[in-house]
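Entry for the shared binder. Reason: the reviewer on the internal report wants the predicted structure included alongside the sequence.
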Amino acid sequence: MVNEQDKTAQEFITIAGGVDLEVSYRDNHAAGAMEIVRVRQIPISKLSEFLSAMGNEARAIELYCDKPSGWADTLTVESANAVADTGQEINLPFLNAWWRRQAKWRKMQDAWTAAESEAKMPTTESRLGSSAPQSPTITT
């Protein structure tokens, strides 16, 4: 259960649109350079893109910060970890709720599919013919 302090923090993050985080760049970008970036809650319109990026941490980091492709590679490992951890933390409540809703839809669709399949299945009697014994044929 979410305690009041966590709920208040989450509401603040929602109002602010995310969390500001200082990141450092690797040698090939601007050695030692730092920047403040906003790690945001993924907009609902980008949720599908985010779900497609699951398992691709660089793309997830770029979506969290609304940065172009390749930007995550310019970060130090420590900064990339900080962005990934922060992004996951602030997006987890919504994603958990989204997964629950998806599970309910799937359960409902499974019930519809099962009911539809049962309605289309022929009965045993119609598949095998009448259950009454056939009369013998007499030949002379």
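Summary line for the report: The CA atoms of residues 41 and 90 lie 6 Å apart.
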